[in-house]
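Request: Show me your protein:
***
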Amino acid sequence: MLQNDHFLNQLKNESKEFIDINECSVENPFFLWSAIKGFLRNNAIRFSSLLKRERLRQISDLELKCKQMENQLKNTYSSDIDSQLKAHQAELNSLLRHRVEYMMHITKHKYYSQGSRN
């Protein structure tokens, strides 16, 4: 997410606003720092959920388009539809590959963190 420009701009603007509002509301800087950490965590979770929903929507849309194009090709072959289908399939494969890589990363992390420490 730190490579996503939209996320970084949103985080920069909203965190500046959050700090400006809450800076004078507490005397102890520890409480302000704890609030900032919570704000950053919540903001990151919200944005990652948004990205996940968007990717899942794209996957389902592409699957539907591919299914429709395959049915069109069954009825009447067209090289234009075939090339569009291949482009959609490539995009779908890219999204699914990203999803599988993430799932593998999470699985490795779980096995490492829950594994024995000999």
Remarks:
- The first helix runs from residue 5 to 22.
- The two ends are 34 Å apart (CA to CA).
- The chain is about 85% helix and 0% strand.
- Residues 68 and 105 are 33 Å apart (CA to CA).
